[in-house]
Amino acid sequence: MSDCLFCKIIAGDIPSGKVYEDDDVFAFNDIHPKAPTHVLVIPKLHIPTLADAKDPTLLGMLMDRVNHIANDVLKLEAGYRLVINVREGGGQEVFHLHVHILGGKKLPF
Ligand code: AMP
Ligand code: ZN
Hints:
Blueprint: H1 5-11, E1 18-21, E2 25-29, E3 37-43, H2 56-73, E4 80-83, E5 99-103
Antiparallel strand pairs: 1-2, 2-3, 3-5, 4-5
Bound molecules: adenosine monophosphate and zinc ion.
């Protein structure tokens, strides 16, 4: 989608701190980290919010890649938190589905 910030990051039109990429997902460091490790994982397919994601296969794939990135790429052995903000009321600011991976310290709830 041409006016989507995260689609531009996937395309390389906006620079990012890439940590992982494959055919289906792209992962990069959050520009305003809320924890020592704060990575965003996004599907390459433009889907505005979780509520718009109707494909269980895509959602399963996304969780599988998040699992791989958190454990095998970022090596967050002590644990981590996943966050998906949904729409304005949930704190979503960028309308391209993304999973936050937060870790690197003990996270208060
Ligand atoms: P959300 O509030 O769930 O929509 O999260 C959007 C996240 O994108 C925020 O944590 C921002 O800090 C992050 N963000 C915004 N612009 C960029 C960017 N250019 N590169 C990396 N992260 C970004
Ligand atoms: Zn997009």
